[in-house]
Every structure is written in structure tokens, then in C-alpha cells.
Amino acid sequence: MGGGLIAGIAGINKTLAIASITHVEDLTYAIFKLNTWVLTEMWFIVIFGSIPVLRPFFVRFTQDVSV
């Protein structure tokens, strides 16, 4: 359940990166920072959203291996 907090922090940093785009001379670097936070937030949401769905697969797999 704490994974949403990490994605939320990435979302906050993304918002701050959007606000800082207008204050820099090198727009390419500012967009790089923005893209980094956008991709970080996206991947955390995909990964943490997949964990509950994949849990039955891993439970079945680990029970077969431990026997």
C-alpha cells in the first residue's frame, strides 16, 4: 500500500518540474528532468498496480517449489 505514496511523490516532483520549465535558459535540460519524473511516476503505477494481480501466480509457483 505504500507504493502509491512513492508514485505520489514522483507526481509532486513532476508538477514542480513543469513549473520550473519557464525559469531556465536550457529548455532541453528542463524537459529531461520533466520526462524523468513522468516516466518514474508511470512505471511505479504500472509496477505497483500489477503486484495484486500477479500474487496468485507467485503463491502457486512458490508452493510448488517448496514441496
Explain the overall architecture.
Keywords: Membrane, Transmembrane, Transmembrane helix. The chain crosses the membrane at residues 42-61. With 67 residues, the chain is mainly α. The chain has one domain (3-66). The protein is built from two helices and no strands. It has helices at residues 3-20, 27-66. The radius of gyration is 18 Å and the shape is elongated. It starts with a helix and ends with a helix. The mean pLDDT is 84.
Fold topology:
Blueprint: H1 3-20, H2 27-66
Helix pairs in contact: 1-2
In short:
This protein is an all-alpha fold and 67 residues long. The chain is 87% helix and 0% strand. The protein has two helices and no strands.
Attribute tags:
mainly alpha; 87% helix
What is the averaged pLDDT score? 84
What fraction of residues sit in β-strands?
under 5%
Radius of gyration: 18 Å
Low-confidence stretches: none
In the residues, how many domains can be counted?
1
Give the biggest sheet. Answer: none
Q: What is the terminal separation in angstroms?
A: 30 Å
Keywords: Membrane, Transmembrane, Transmembrane helix
Transmembrane segments: 42-61
